[in-house]
Amino acid sequence: MSFLELRDVSRVYGEGANEVHALQNVNLAVERGSLVAVMGPSGSGKSTLLTIAGSLEEPTSGEVLIDGRSLSNMSHNDKARLRRRTVGYVFQDFNLLAGLTAAENVSLPLELDGTGARKARDAAMAVLDELGLVDRAGHYPDQLSGGERQRVAIARAIVGERHLVLADEPSGALDSANGEAVMRMLLTACKGGVAAVVVTHDAQLASWAERVVFLRDGRVVDQTVPPPSPESLLEPSVQP
Amino acid sequence: MSVRHALLGLLSEGPKYGHQLRQEFEARTGEVWPLNVGQVYTTLQRLERDGLVASDDAEAEGPQKDFRITAQGQEELDRWLRTPPDLTSPPRDELVIKVLVAVQLPGVDVREVLQVHRRYLVELMQQWTRLKEDEAEFDLALALVVDAELFRLDSVIRWLDAADGRLKRADAEPAAAGAPPPVLRRRLAVRR
User: Which among B32, B45, B122 is the top mutation candidate for probing chain A, defined by the most A β-carbons within 10 Å of its own β-carbon?
Assistant: First the structure.
């Protein structure tokens, strides 16, 4: 079963002559364990898609399901709980809290959800360890490089039992080596059972995903078919 | 791809047999450029004819023949490494031509044509990235080759995206699209 499902989702801003169709009849299903990239130019509706998928915004029509539960039947409080417990966000500009260490940033969502401080810290250290960041646990964001900050942000997005990661241009502010490290980390998280959606205009970033969905003017216009094994790239084809 | 200079590069490390050269060539290029042994020997014969390599035993043939680089060969290798390939004149890119043709044809959805190519390129990039994910971390040569391919394909996609943006703007202002400003038209005419 898909962990995240968008069924015929549309989003309209404004009214009458000023109406803007940010999303039109979008369908998208993402399983746990898989990384899907949504690729499109700016203004194509990528960020709207992500905020609707993460229940931060309501669709004008259509339905969003997370773990089989429809968000439209959910109370405000239930949605807030779902966001805290199930969904992790990664933004282009990291959004770490400057006054907290890496470990404190990572444990914060658990503590806000009522987990005891020690238990939250243990969970944070476990995920930092898993992502190779344990030696940075006591550092403050301004003591970390851009790449490290984004990796801490990913740790924060997957800490606890959260199974859906939504990332908006997660490597937009990073150089290619750090961008690659971020995508490797998201893939690792997916292999651990997370469903991830990355929206980006960057093909190099999108190419880490197993499926790339193309968004144009608020519509899904195309998607990649699963590529053959990369071995086919290495078959003898050299010209003398 | 200059097999000739790649072989000179390998021989600059010391004398080698033909078979050994083939194996090392493939290993050093991340096994992305397979080379048949006949091609190696033909190239070596030409290099020897041009005085860039010498064989120790002129009589022996086949796998036992040992080749070494000459001083002239070393000079040629140094010169080649520092000579930029010719990137000055725009290549007659088949994809650019297809898009230019599509723009002229009535009834063709050019943005749909762009998307067909975009998807194909992204699928190709997915394969290269998968290769990087699996192996390239441990193999510098392969990682360099994969990066080069990814950046090359990425630049083509960026061009498609830019073309898409241009077409969208042209659709919004059809008058401007129908009559390009005279300066632009003149430049295009010169290229032709």
Answer: B122
Q: Taking CB atoms and an 8 Å limit, are A240 and B39 in contact across chains?
A: yes
Q: What is the pLDDT of residues B116-131, one digit of tens each?
A: 999 999 999 999 998 8
Specify the range with the lowest mean pLDDT, choosing from A104-108, A165-169, B142-146. B142-146
Q: Write the CB contacts of A202 (distance below 8 Å, at least 6 apart in sequence).
A: A169, A171, A172, A179, B154
Question: Under the phi-then-psi rule, with left for phi > 0, alpha for psi from -120 to 50, and beta for the rest, what region is A97?
Answer: beta
Q: What are phi and psi for residue A126, nearest 5 degrees?
A: -60, -45
The ipTM assigned to this model is 0.87
Class of domain B3-82: mainly alpha
Q: DSSP string spanning A5-45?
A: EEEEEEEEES-GGG-EEEEEEEEEEE-TT-EEEEE--TTSS
Cβ distance A216 to B131 less than 8 Å, yes or no, reads no
Query: What is the distance between the alpha carbons of residues A220 and A86, in angstroms, rounded to a whole number?
Result: 25
Pick the CATH number of A4-14+33-225 from 2.60.40.10, 3.40.140.10, 3.40.50.300, 3.40.570.10: 3.40.50.300
Domain-wise residue ranges, chain A: 4-14+33-225
